[in-house]
Design a protein that fits this description.
The protein is about 35% helix and about 15% strand. Helix 8 packs across helix 15.
């Protein structure tokens, strides 16, 4: 699978030791090890710009699989549940649908369409009267998030499946030439020290990418709208970041964002493909405000086709693209069977990080900015195209293994420990100087100097 990501494995200095595999009909642990390796290889290439051999890259398969689940282990406290009480899979009159209701406005949209209160039994009764695709269309049209269960064959025939299949895994464009006083200097042991990353991402792929960048020293400033929270995953992904709030829908918030952007090296965003354009913060403005910017983005369903602007999440894309159906068939189950972890989000996050690192290398060598795009649906296509899991230990490892002894992280919620990093780039260890903290606790500004 590493070859599909543009790397040759040992020929690129990447070592992928053997290990177990997460239990799945798909090669999830292959995807985990390969995507983490792609990020490591991209850093190695950046480091090699100063001359000499690129450092070796090693990816621990079992740890990569484990980080695709959760890296944090609380001590004396518990993580919030990842799902709203209404969210989940429901039987329709002709199949299945997943309702994603973690965000209050998505929950309100689904309940409004169904005309029931937020009671799971009432929701199930109402859903059972609907055709799956009709309900999907109605919930999405009301501003909610839902996905009907489709087989891989159905997705291949679907207009959006056809559009996604025609897109590259990573689409890259050259943008403006760099200017101004902030060259990209690379310190071998802390390679992203001084690199400013403006993070406009939420659950889950984008935060995974920026967490990795922070581990190599990047100054990551995450921006969320007022009132937004994602308690089930913030302790996992806020590691190494400062987290602030801005309302980009009002002039004052947009103006402050533009000021921040003018001092950034990297922008990572996960809004729907038309969202920043709608806020007056489109691609042309971003390139003008920060010449040389490395502008990296993802969306759920791709950048072309009828669903290019549709909101979505990993679990919904699994339903749409045939993954949950294939799991159900393989298990002989009566309901959809998703991947054992949010593998589309996680793999996309590491590919975004690889894009950032490659963009920084291009900026350093050619003095140009770049714009990178991928989608959860395109990563799903990569996983499906890789075929069924063929590893000898295809049900072999625990997605939450016992935690080796390690340093205590003083998070905002209490003491915790982290799994060791799954990725080792020789001479450039991953470590995070800032423990995970609450959203909205920092000021929306870059440090002086």
């Amino acid at each position: 699978m590493l070859g599909a990501l543009g790397y040759a494995g040992p020929a690129d200095g990447i070592t992928l030791p053997d290990g177990g595999s997460l239990p799945s009909v798909f090669a999830v642990s292959d995807l985990a090890q390969a995507s983490v390796g792609a990020a490591g290889a991209a850093l190695a290439r950046l480091l090699a710009l100063d001359g000499g051999a690129a450092p070796t890259v090693t990816v621990d398969r079992d740890l990569a699989s484990a980080w695709f689940a959760f890296s944090i282990r609380p001590e004396g406290w518990a993580l919030a549940g990842p799902w709203d009480a209404v969210a989940g899979d429901y039987a329709t009159s002709d199949g299945w649908i997943k309702l994603h209701t973690n965000a209050p406005h998505h929950r309100a949209a689904a309940l409004g369409v169904l005309g029931v209160p937020g009671d799971r039994d009432a929701v199930a009764g109402a859903v059972a009267t609907w055709n799956a695709e009709d309900l999907e269309t109605a919930v999405v049209g009301a501003g909610g998030a839902a996905a009907a269960l489709r087989s891989a064959a159905e997705w291949e025939r679907h207009p959006q499946g056809i559009a996604v299949a025609a897109e590259p895994l990573l689409l890259v464009d050259r943008t403006s030439d760099t200017s101004g006083p902030r060259p990209i200097a690379v310190r071998r042991d802390r390679p992203l020290d001084g690199v400013r990353v403006l993070d406009l991402t939420r659950v889950l792929a984008g935060p995974v990418a920026t967490r990795l960048l922070a581990g190599w020293g990047a100054d990551v400033l995450r921006i969320d709208p007022p009132g937004w929270d994602e308690p089930g995953v913030v302790p996992e992904v806020a590691l190494g970041k400062r987290c602030a709030r801005l309302d980009l829908a009002v002039p004052e918030g947009r103006d402050r964002f533009v000021e921040l952007l003018s001092g950034a090296d990297v922008l990572v965003h996960g809004y729907r493909s038309d969202a920043l354009e709608g806020l007056g913060l489109g691609t042309a403005l971003r390139a003008d405000v920060r010449p040389g910017l490395v502008d990296v983005s993802l969306d759920a369903y791709g950048w072309s086709g009828p669903w290019a602007t549709r909101r979505g999440f990993d679990s919904l894309v699994q339903m749409s693209s045939g993954i949950a159906d294939a799991g159900m068939v393989a298990a002989g189950a009566e309901r959809p069977v998703p991947l054992p972890v949010q593998a589309l989000d996680q793999a996309t996050g590491y590919l975004l990080a690889a894009s950032v690192l490659t963009g920084l290398a291009r900026r350093r060598s050619d003095a140009t900015g770049s714009r990178w795009r991928t989608s959860l649906a395109r990563v799903a296509r990569l996983l499906v195209d890789a075929g069924p899991a063929g590893h000898k230990d295809a049900a072999g490892i625990d997605p939450a293994p016992p935690l080796p002894e390690g340093p205590v992280e003083r998070t905002a919620w209490g003491a915790a420990r982290r799994l060791p990093p799954p990725l080792a780039v020789d001479g450039a260890p991953l470590w995070w100087s800032v423990p995970a903290g609450e959203l909205g606790t920092a000021s929306p500004e870059w440090p002086a100097g």
